[in-house]
Amino acid sequence: MKRVIFLLAFLTIFLVQQAFSFDWGGSVEDKSIGNFTFDKFSSGYLIQTEIARLWMSQSFGGSADLLMKANVADAITEGYAPGPFSNTPTVDLDDLAFSSGGLVLGRTIYSDFGGVLLNTTLDGIQGTISMQGLDLTLLAGYSGFVFKSGSTMVISQADLTDRTVAEDFSKPSTLFAPPRAVGYLDANFTKLLPDQEVQLAEAVQIDLRQSDIAKNGDSHSYYTPGSTAPVDMSYTGLGMSGRIVGPLYWDLWGYAGLGMSLTPTGNYAQKVVDTTKQPATVTPEVLQTWKTSYIVNGIGSLDFSLLLPDFYNTIVDLGLMVGSWDPDGISPDQNLPTTPKGDTPSLYTGYFGISRTGSALIFNPQPTNMAIAQLLYSLKPFSASKGDAANLQMTASGFVFMRPTTGAIAESGLDSTSKNLYLGTEADLNLIWRPAADWGASLGLGLFAPGTAMTRGLEGIAQLGLNLSF
Amino acid sequence: MRRFWCAVLGTFLCLAPSWGQSAGTGDDVVIDGILKQKNISWGNASWLVGRAVETIGEGLSPSDAAAKAAAAGWGPAGLSPEARLNLKSYSLMLVKAFSLPTGLMYKLFPGPRYAFRELVFRRILPPTLPPDGTLSGEAAMRYLQAVQDWKDGQR
Lengths: 470, 155
What we know:
The complex is a heterodimer. Chain A is mainly β. Helices cover 5% and strands 53% of the residues of chain A. Chain A has helices at 2-19, 157-163; strands at residues 21-37, 45-60, 64-79, 85-100, 103-111, 119-131, 134-142, 180-193, 196-207, 219-220, 232-245, 248-265, 272-274, 281-283, 288-308, 314-323, 347-348, 370-379, 392-402, 422-433, 439-450, 459-469. The model of chain A has no long low-confidence stretch (mean pLDDT 87). Chain B is globular. In chain B, 36% of the residues are buried. At the A-B interface, strand 1 of A face helix 6 and helix 7 of B.
């Protein structure tokens, strides 16, 4: 019977492949990253990563496609100073998506219109309906089947705790990202204003964990494993982008977030046994209580871009992104009350998105209590060349990091006693060269000069990448 | 030559519907037949590309062109002129006929698979098309024009 089933399965696959178009391919990539601190050489590190990717595509008569992408990676990290050496192998399924028309079903990247609030791999469905002057995009996804290494959703203290547990294939519970449901609706008005697009968006993220998560009224001890709270959020976004004049464009967007979490309130006291008295006295442990707390936060971004395709494919971009802050510098992933010993749950006002985002090569803070100004210049200096050099792209970026308030930031190395708002400046240079269809190379160089508000020293980074596809 | 083919493509795309009612001769008849093909044949593709790179002269039939193309290594020998050509096989024909620059994998395995990817990389073909997909006569002319444009840009 098994042989018959196997034969039938083989024949079905064979006939499907013959009837429709099947293609496959892959790539191997080597990435080397060297990070060094000028005044503290021993704090630098080297990361060598080998990545093998494989993809398969099945086209069903041009009207529907099935795409699968998977990768196997091995990252070896070693510090300059004697210390821990780490070797982290990972396996991930990047894409498994069936698409037809404007509908995509399965695993792929889910992203919002700004690309900052939501940009991660999920399993779900997304589709776009185009009407007269209006494109409606709807997506719904689930994060619980995505490997942790492939997810950029780190929101609550529970998520941070989960990240500290290494992926172990003998323990399936350690493999996957925390289960969350994500919904997103985007209305893009393309003809409301000449040369402009106006976008309205609503994004929702709900924590689906039932166990190991606190509920309103639960007692809490700092020493209880898994004492963490859910964080549920809803964001409303508005954006506008388009041509200002000639080759000058702009892009303005912002999100306001509202949400709920739980905060441990009350005084916590450890159990104390005083053996100096006879008989010994025991002061019982006093637990805290989880109470509902609320979140109000926001983020905004403004970019001006100059696009000159006829002049060495030049792109110049000047942008500013600002994320909201909390007067106490506390965010839900820390789960601390505004007044550490108070009974009133805190109102969290620091920005955090559904997924994490990145900016520069070295200094890469999440935009919480953060203003990031960026000037980018990209060009293909040899675009007029007839040879392979025409495919060299150079991008130079300058970043200035400021914090709007003297509160905490979502990055290490801040001097908590400093009142200085200026955090540092970074200059990055990226070269990408792809002379042929099947191989390419990239080089990234960066230098971060911290301000006096930071305890970090002058840092440099060099990244080299080689890619061969087959 | 490029202008000639531009004019041929433009004129035939505009006038093709009315040509069904009038009989033409020589190249006109062949081109008319190519434009009507939902899935271009090996003979017609050989004729089209052969005329563009001037390896075949006027008055030669698609069957003769197919024989010449096979001899030049543009496709497998022994293929019947009526055999249907898919996109990646047509890609191989274009890469070989126009001696397009190729990457490492094509040099190691010079077949339709990597010829198709070379054309996608040079933006001659859109990346969304399936390499095994069917190729109409009109699309074959369009991609032929795109190759000629790319070659002109390199000169």
